[in-house]
Amino acid sequence: MRVPRAVANFHRRVTNPVARSLTPWLPCLGTLEHTGRKSGKRYRTPLLVFKTQNGYAILIGYGLESDWLKNVMAGGPTALHTWGRAVTLANPKILAKAEAAQLVTPAPRLLYRLFPYNEAALVLTRPADTT
Asked: Model-level pTM?
């Protein structure tokens, strides 16, 4: 199920400002910090996030035309604020929800599958250590 764009616009203006202060501390939620592909401005978007072995899977609820998704796919710097810490992420890849489910760690996997978003998920990994 894809959430209508009108709901996305409401969340962007009303819900997200409040959610940004809570999501870094709640399970399966996080705030994705990304750079605008046109403006260069930094954005912070609260999202549903699920830990994988070497990164995170993020459910895409508003469809592939979401600005945050386009920004991340453009390759700018990306960090996820979750559980009170910031994690640098890279290598964005869009997968089918079912395909990404296999990457989600066992503990949150049931919750991941229960969410009605069924279009896709974005998988991000921690960059390889360069030292």
From this structure: 0.81
